[in-house]
Write a structure and sequence with these properties.
Shape: globular
Helix content: under 10%
Order of helices and strands: EEEEEEEEEEEHEEEEEEEEEEH
Strand content: 35-45%
Number of domains: 1
Number of helices: 2
CATH superfamily: Jelly Rolls
CATH topology: Jelly Rolls
CATH class: Mainly Beta
CATH architecture: Sandwich
């Protein structure tokens, strides 16, 4: 069902019978940061929080001097600079690391501090084990009832070489046989895409589904329509209407399994999504060369 020239069509199909047949469904959740007041405001930062079943998205518009600290973070988290003009300093375990321009960093558990040196936009992605952040999410009530089609969260193995901040460029050039710009940590995977200019045609969409994990589609630029279709099962009481939800940037759409979905950029200018998954995706990770930092973060079952 993927569109023309979509490399995801080369992914191996899910193992038959691996995921149980669903008997009920969770709805999608949408957070339109542009239309909602931030959950946190300081003189140099405005921050919005939204969550899914497994992950918290913190989106911030920041100026120089903004500081984000975690005193007792329970597990690894990700920090992303989506723009070329951003610059931050990350401190953890006595280490100080600078991230400049488009980049993604994975920060160890425990105490850490992110200081903005050049203002721009900043994303932080946490698992829902960060319970203090879960309560700040605008859509926290929506997940008081868990999604029945998502298994309990399990982190992937620790990185090679132990605890440290790892920073990766988000501007690595494309390759013909590689999908996107994928990075994974022990808890989170991100696809750092470039987006596309202009409207995506209705004749070249990529409807697909995931058996047992969410997709977090974070709109950074432009305007999107998220097209969603739930499967029919024998219990007609569980049937849901299709959704064609319009979300401009900045926003996040949390797409549950096993919904068939595709996102259509409709702005005349740049339309850019950043997709995130918690925990990392097996199918993407199994494709040689797709995950750019695979040597640092082993897959489960590997030494």
């Amino acid at each position: 069902m993927y569109g023309r020239n979509d490399l995801r069509a080369t992914l191996a199909p899910a193992e038959s019978g691996k995921a149980p047949t669903p008997t009920s469904f969770k709805g999608a959740s949408y957070a339109r940061f542009y239309g909602e007041p931030p959950q946190e405001t300081t003189s140099v930062a405005r921050t919005w929080y939204a969550r899914g079943q497994t992950m918290v998205v913190a989106y911030s518009e920041v100026g120089e001097g903004a500081v984000f600290e975690r005193a007792d973070q329970p597990d690894e988290y990700a920090v992303l600079l989506p723009d070329e003009d951003g610059e931050i300093e990350i401190e953890s375990d006595g280490q100080r690391v600078i991230a400049r321009g488009k980049s993604v960093a994975f920060v160890p558990s425990g105490a850490s501090k992110v200081t903005v040196r050049k203002g721009s936009r900043l994303l932080r992605l946490f698992t829902v084990r960060a319970v203090d952040l879960v309560t700040r999410c605008a859509n926290a009530d929506f997940y008081e009832t868990p999604d029945p089609n998502i298994p309990p969260f399990q982190p992937w193995p620790d990185p090679v070489g132990g605890r440290k901040v790892r920073v990766y460029s988000g501007s690595v050039g494309p390759e013909q046989c590689r999908f996107g710009r994928l990075y994974r940590g022990s808890t989170i995977m991100v696809n750092f895409g470039d987006g596309r200019v202009g409207e995506r045609g209705l004749d070249n969409l990529s409807p697909h589904h995931h058996d047992d994990f969410e997709q977090y589609s974070i709109a950074l630029d432009g305007d999107y329509i998220h097209h969603l279709r739930w499967p029919w099962i024998s219990d007609g009481r569980e049937w849901r209407e299709d959704e064609h939800e319009r979300c401009a940037a900045p926003s996040v759409a949390v797409i549950p399994p096993p919904v068939t979905h595709t996102s259509q950029g409709v702005a005349p200018g740049l339309n850019r999504l950043l997709d995130a998954f918690c925990p990392p995706r097996f199918d993407f990770s199994a494709k040689p060369g797709w995950v750019l930092n695979a040597e640092d973060y082993p897959m489960p079952g590997r030494e």
